[in-house]
Design goal:
heterodimer, A: 0% strand, B: alpha+beta, 3 domains, 7-stranded antiparallel β-sheet
Amino acid sequence: MLGDSRKAQEIFHATLREAAVRAARGDLPDEQFWLFRDARWRCLEATRTDLQPEPVEMDERDVAPGAESQIQRLDPLQLAIWISAAPDPQRSALALFYLDEFDYREILDIADLKLSELSHFLAKGRRQLQAWLDSKFPQASKV
Amino acid sequence: MRRQRSLLNCAPISARQLADRPMRSALSRTDGSAEFADQQNFDRALARLVRLIAIPAESAEWFSEKDLVPASKRTWKNTLRNPAVLAISIAVAVIAGVFVFNFVSHLNDFPGSATARKLLGIAASTRSVMLDPVNAEAGTLSDLFFMKHGLEHYDVPEEFADFDTIGCRVFEDDESRRIAQIWVSEKRMQFFLFPAERDSKTGTVLRFPGWRYVRQEGWTGAVTEHSGVCFMAAVRGSEKDLAPYLTQPKE
């Protein structure tokens, strides 16, 4: 979500601290995903004052059969930065989806999205990622 | 179609998140399309890469081996809202209702109760002109039934024997049983005498002790059996209208 492990850790601890305080007060919300929703809003709040990526129209390409080998050549941190640079709520959709911990209904709940919106953001994200992979590793993009 | 496409775009990366029925249905319709296979391979490769993103040790220890999200428990409320469970529950409730209704309505059944109910229907539709005028006490009519119609033991019980008769008749019901009907002036009550039910194998009379009540279309009958013949006193009303005659034996 942030592309910055130091900030992520700060938010993680702030979220847990808040949860502990609310638990001590017996004030925990009766919602399954409130902690994740809270963490997401903290992330969005933290990035609001950051330097914002320039809004540019990104290239899009269909997902290629050989994309797997391109992804294997990618550095994990590069992927984290790429996702964190996406505009929200696409950023939240991609981060939550590729975390592979939530099913689509849970993502809809946490990110306050409709199914059509989540579908659109994921499809668009895949196509943009593919275009980015093709630009980074052009030899594997075309057969 | 659009919803299916939307669902496929959100298809789970790992099989452990396949609990959703619409999603399972959408996945079953992909028929192994190459486009969807590419998408799945793409997603899996990305998810593997995401797992490699280093988490600071301080934060990582919070996760250890435990699940990030505890599996949601299926509550009773959710289970009851399931359409299949709801439909089965309603069906079971209806069946149980019918069963209870039948059970309760037959709880007070006795040998001859079905005939008695039919006769209450006849009582409701009978007009006094349909009967032969008779001016005598009801208790004396057993001689008439025996002498004129050959009916033995068609005796009016002593509780009702003193009542003045307006008319009477003997007729056959749809099973060719001979029924005696008496109309008395007291509360415009009607009496019926009819053969008691018999065991279909042995032919012995199925007896029952005392008085039993039957109800049909606003009429109530008090039935007793004696010497193989049932007597029923029928009145438009409830058991309360008949009870005083049964609890206060005539002297």
